[in-house]
Amino acid sequence: MFTGLIEEVGTIQSIRRGQKSCVLTIGCRTVLEDSKVGDSIAVNGVCLTVTGMGGSYYTADVMAETMNRSSLGQLSSGSGVNLERAMPANGRFGGHIVSGHIDGTGTIRSIEREDNAVWYTIEAAPAILRYVVEKGSITIDGISLTVAYVDERCFRVSIIPHTQQVTALHDRRVGNIVNLECDIIGKYVEKLLTHPAAEKPTEQPASAEQSGITEEFLRKYGF
Q1: Over 60: is that where the pLDDT of 170 sits?
Q2: What is the DSSP annotation of the chain?
Q3: What's the pLDDT score for residue 91?
């Protein structure tokens, strides 16, 4: 599990592409501390497993399913990526519950500055927007952000300059694709409410006659 608080902006050093997959080599420093092969590190919000490590880099495999659902297939050497290690049990929960399993992608439609804030308008599919609520949480390229506005076509977030400067958002431009993960709580609630089992009437407890426990039975055995 992650929190959506970016620890470091890494750099894609190389990409070894397969037919439908790839292997990323990511240059970084901070997220290598206390990490080992097999650990999880979120890359632009996508949970990937560390497959190899060096003094200033690590490698991660990206399978076809991940390539199809995320923007990782559009990375190139030199791209900046948001990095976050999985949350430790004794860590501070500063963002929100982030699984690292993105729901899909969105497109940046506008970037506007307003005094000390920067507004990002993200266009997304209805399948994603159904889980986006005003004042709720959403993850954009791994960054935990608060939704300030949402309609049937897009949503907007407002960030402080610090967030833009210390994440890969400072490289994003209008038209760029970003990874989106909606708040997982809403998805669980929908699943529970729409599951076929939820539509079945609650079974009534068996009557005394059906269970075989009657007043005569109780008297017989001293009750």
Answers
A1: yes
A2: -B-S---EEEEEEEEEE-SS-EEEEEE-SGGGTT--TT-EEEETTEEEEEEEE-SSEEEEEE-HHHHHHSSGGG--TT-EEEEEEPPPTTS---S--B-S---EEEEEEEEEEETTEEEEEEE--HHHHTT--TT-EEEETTEEEEEEEE-SSEEEEEE-HHHHHHSGGGG--TT-EEEEEE-HHHHHHHHHHHSHHHHSPPPPPPPHHHHT--HHHHHHTT-
A3: 78
